[in-house]
Each structure stands twice: as C-alpha cells, then as structure tokens.
Amino acid sequence: MNRIIAVLLLILTWGGHALASDESWENVTARRELVVGFCAQYPPFESKNLTTGAFEGFDVDLATALASEMGVSVKFVDAEWQGLLGGLGKGDFDMLLTCMSKSEARGANANFSDVYYRLADVIVVKKGNTAISGLEDLAGKVVGVQIGSGSEQLADSMKGRFKEIKRYNYNPEAFADVKFGRIDAVLVGYTYAIRQNKVDPAYKVVGAPLAEAEIVAVMKKGADALTAEVNAALSRLQKSGEYQTIHERWLAL
User: Fold this and answer.
1) What was the pLDDT predicted at 117?
2) Domain limits, the chain
C-alpha cells in the first residue's frame, strides 16, 4: 500500500511539474516583451529599409500588432535563416514570424500558430525567355532555390525533372544568376517574385502555381500557453479588420 501511495504521489508531483513547466507566456508577460526572430532578407514579408535602417514588411507589422493585442511590446532579432530554428530551440526568441511554412519547420518538432497566410510557389525566369512556359519545360534545366526554404523542399520532391538544383543562401543570389543566364529558373514564393519584378523588371513568372505553403508563427515545442495567446490575438486582428489592412499594405498584388 505504501508503495502504491508513493507511486501516486510521484505521478502527481511530475504531473504538476509538467503543467507548471510551460512558462512560455509567463516569461513574455514578466518582461513585457515578445522577442520575435526572423531573417530580414525576404521582402515584402521582412527586410531592412535601406534609408532608415528600420525593419519593415508584412511580418513586422503583423508581429507588432499581435504584441500590442497581447499587451506587450515587441523586439525583433534579425538572424541567419538557417539558424532560426536552432536559435528558437536555445531560447534566443519567443517566436519566429518570418514567412516560415509548416513544412519548413516540421523537422524542429515545434508548436505552430494558426495559418496566417497561404503562399504559392512559382517558376521565375528571365524576361524574354520563350523556352520555359511551365513546369514541363524545366526538364534538363538548372533550377535555383534558397537553402532551407519550402521551395527547396518542393524542388527536391521533383528533382528527377531537372538537370541540376542549384542552392543559394538567399533568393537575390539566385535571381542574379537567372538574370545573367547562369541558371534557367528559380522556384520561389509568389509574393516575393512579384515584389522582385517591381524592383527589377528583368524577370517574369511563368506557368501555374506549383504548390501552396501554409505560413505560420513558430514557437518551441510545448509552448502551448504562448501559442494560445498568439492564436487568440491573431483571431481578434482578423475580426477587427486590422489584419486585412496590414495585408493590403504589403501583399496586395
């Protein structure tokens, strides 16, 4: 009997510890600040204004609005894309809001917010290219992708179609190689492609969208309290119309 009681007490003790161990929201409220990690090299979602040096973009405005809705301030930390999930695991950030899809973050065994955007991947070629009008024309061609992106995962799933998949640290490098004829095409998110074409009309999107990625905020596995607060704040922003205002500001095509 004593052993049974001891086991029950141990279970209750550990159960209570498990319940109390999620301090994700408590930590944010204690410092009155939400630390958001991102890679500010992906306009119009996040980038650094070359004139002011300030961060700007859809994710920047959305994170600011979410934090305000949650009653705290926001601090942005710019980091290398490939190190974001590792930094989240180490506690460098409370949350990632950086146009990251579920598929890109799934390997990190993380918590996801509700989907806040759906992003299609498309094919981009040099303007004037008449040889490529869709996916079927990429057979035997060299295709560029950003390392660690959903576009890279998509390309890898179809790699038998291509002569080569060339991988880049960041999309601008891939776009430059398309422009100067070093590769044939880039697979990239549609909003980025449209924005890039507005900056430099040397490119065009061809063919139908290849896939649609579910974009989410990413938190450490087990950060259920923070995840719930983020989802509640996102829902309120959507109902109030503020989300749509931010969307129109940055993502209207």
Assistant:
1) 97
2) 2-118+215-251, 119-213
